[in-house]
Design a protein that fits this description.
76 residues, Non-ribosomal Peptide Synthetase Peptidyl Carrier Protein, Chain A, 4 helices
Length: 76
């Protein structure tokens, strides 16, 4: 989880990613952020986030994104 938080903090150091659960709903993350996050996650965690996983529920919080990463790791 710490690796993911570091990726997110690099994009928006002013956001408390550990408690925020409305990253998409409140427009904290935009489409460019999502693309950057996906690229970093793919490199860091060696998982592929496909188009079917790019939904607000998976990106609204760091916890939701981390749970997605764990699911994808389990599939490999």
């Amino acid at each position: 989880m710490e690796d993911l938080l570091e990726i997110l903090r690099d994009l928006h150091p002013e956001v408390d990613f550990e408690s925020c659960e409305t990253l998409i709903d409140d427009k904290i993350l935009d489409s460019f952020d999502i693309v950057s996050i996906i690229a970093e996650v793919n490199d860091q965690f060696e998982v592929t986030i496909s188009a079917e996983h790019i939904i607000p529920e998976n990106f609204n919080s760091a916890r939701a994104l981390y749970e997605l990463i764990q699911r994808l790791e389990d599939e490999d």
